[in-house]
Amino acid sequence: MMKRLKLGLWNGIPPYGYRLVDKKLVIEPTEAELVRRIFDWFMKRNMGVVAISRELNGREIKPRKGARWKGTRIHKMIGNSLYAGMIRWGGETAMGTHEPIISKELFEAAQDTMHGRNHKTRQLRSPNYLSGLVKCGLCGAPMHVTYPGVEPKSRFKYYVCNNRYNHRSCKQDYIRADILEESVIREIGKLADRKDVISVLVNEYAANNREALPKLEEKRKAILHDLAALGAERQKLSRWLLRTQPTDQAVNFVNTQIEGVSEKETRLQEKQWAIEDQINDLQKQTYDAETISGQLKGFVANFPGLDQGERKLLVESLVEQVEIGKNKRVAASLRPPFAFGFMSPELAPRAR
Asked: Is the pTM of this model over 0.85?
């Protein structure tokens, strides 16, 4: 297998950014440009893999397979040495004959950054701290930040519905970014003073947790069982390649099968991690109205003194979604343990 790769003969499905021509990897320009942009966002804008996936989904950029990007897929791309011209097989690394999409230096720097972020809190640098969280309540599409008209970018930014922006198929108004962001923070402050409301919602949240945990544990066990079966199937296919002298056609077929098994494993692992995150969240200590009220007040009080990256990091830890409804009414839902929502009054007319 390594000899074939050193000759530039690719086995199986080509990775994102490449296509196969006469069994050799050739750059696919549009996809390769997106690969470069992902590395650029990761290194220069200090965005994490989840933030990058949200950015791509918010812009309605589709992956080659599936409907949406996920953080695990971005993580796998950033860790793929193939983009820097290197190939790996069975623990061995060598330079390939294909054209790299990024430099070896950039790839190695990205691996160092990835390793470092596993040991410290990420600081996201996007100046739009609600990006990836805002949804149109009229059509359900994501909303992204734009600078309409001829005014300089330093003046006003707006959130716009993707369907209106790309297809003119939605009547949702443009929403001034600064006014929307101020509205969300202000309403969180108002909610912090409603301990009576918070107390009721906390009790409901705890009751739901007690009912949800056994079901989540059963789902987790089923996924682990399926992962074990897929692992055994992948090992069986790999052993067949190593023990026989297959034709090129057979190698391609078996590698396609292995790739299919790996994709199934990735999807199951994503489900496993999501369920384990839910279980961990539900098993946390009991929260009371006084504690949550104090935390929300602390959020609002500290927010003005934070830099852009800290603001985005804090908002993403608290806010799950912001929805813009009819007449620019804003409805927001918060993440556990603040797992409830609120609705603000209609935004001021100057939001247009």
From this structure: no
Range 235-268 burial, b when 16+ CB lie within 10 A, else e = eeebeebeeeeeeeeebbebbeebebbeebbeeb
Classify strands 86-89 and 92-95 as parallel, antiparallel or unpaired: antiparallel
- The domain 2-117 belongs to what CATH superfamily? Putative Large Serine Recombinase; Chain B, Domain 2 (3.90.1750.20)
- The three state secondary structure string of 110-139 is HHHHHHHHCCCCCCCCCCCCCCCCEEECCC
- With vertex at residue 317, the alpha carbon angle to CA 316 and CA 319, rounded to the nearest 5 degrees, is 60
HEC sequence for 217-245 = HHHHHHHHHHHHHHHHHHHHHHHHHHHCC
Please state, in angstroms and rounded to a whole number, the distance separating the CA atoms of residues 159 and 175. 5
For the chain, give every domain's residue range.
Answer: 2-117, 134-196+289-351, 206-282
pLDDT tens per residue across all 352 residues of the chain: 667 766 766 767 788 999 988 878 899 999 999 999 999 999 888 788 888 988 898 888 888 887 788 888 899 899 999 999 888 766 667 788 889 999 999 999 998 888 766 544 343 445 678 888 899 999 999 998 887 654 544 467 899 999 998 888 999 999 999 899 989 998 888 888 888 888 887 788 778 778 888 899 999 999 999 989 988 888 888 788 776 677 777 777 887 888 788 778 878 887 888 788 778 767 765 677 888 888 888 888 888 888 777 788 788 878 889 999 988 888 888 876 565 555 555 554 443 3
Query: Integer distance in angstroms from the first to the last C-alpha of the chain?
Result: 60
